[in-house]
Amino acid sequence: MVEIGGRPILWHIMKIYSSYGFHDFVICCGYKGYMIKEFFANYFLHTSDVTFDFKQNKMITHQSFSEPWKITLVDTGDETMTGGRLKRVAQHLGRGTFMMTYGDGVSNVNIHALVEFHKSHGRKATLTAVQPPGRFGALNLGESDTIQSFVEKPTGDGGYVNGGFFVLEPSVLDLIKDDKTIWEREPLERLARNGDLKAFKHDGFWLPMDTLRDKIKLEELWASGKAPWKIW
């Protein structure tokens, strides 16, 4: 429930999907999952101006900022691994193709293009492949190794990594054994070995909130009014 611009990062991720017409969400709750439930249970209190009329015993909501969302929040355990969490919510996913992503990163990935790519290749799984931003500033060296300036290490100077934003067929759930299964290990590795995993290359913006530095960067982008992931 770490925030960007006063809203949980989870809210930002959901807004990305919702902008492409996907409004049905299943959220895997873990440690302090009650905080997520509380946020959505009191969504209007968090997002709107309200008047409490104690004489009439009612609450009046002003400037109601509602969303067309249906949200299922599932307690998946404090210690459950990523694969186990997905397995625990299987009953809520239906029988068709579904999407999954991590709750700590934002991107301007084109969800429609991602889904169409998945449909085109006929494999069981698609992950969004991204080139992570540079974690360290680079040195601009002059003659005799004199440092002339510091520059940002550019995005895309290395290989692609798993950026989340998956599109999956229901059969992938059969690859998850139990709560201890790490999604990024046996399930994904087996899909790769069997030729059932494709990469949707995304060379645009992508940033996970792994460190305080990441949070500061995301807050700065949001405050600037030019957050790349704000497509709504």
UniProtKB/TrEMBL annotation:
Alphabetized, the UniProt keywords read:
Nucleotidyltransferase, Transferase
GO MF terms here are: glucose-1-phosphate cytidylyltransferase activity
Single GO BP term: O antigen biosynthetic process
Domain named Nucleotidyl transferase: residues: 2-186
The cross-references to InterPro entries, in alphabetical order and at most eight, read:
G1P_cyt_trans (IPR046981), G1P_cyt_trans-like (IPR013446), NTP_transferase_dom (IPR005835), Nucleotide-diphossugar_trans (IPR029044)
What this protein is called in its record is Glucose-1-phosphate cytidylyltransferase
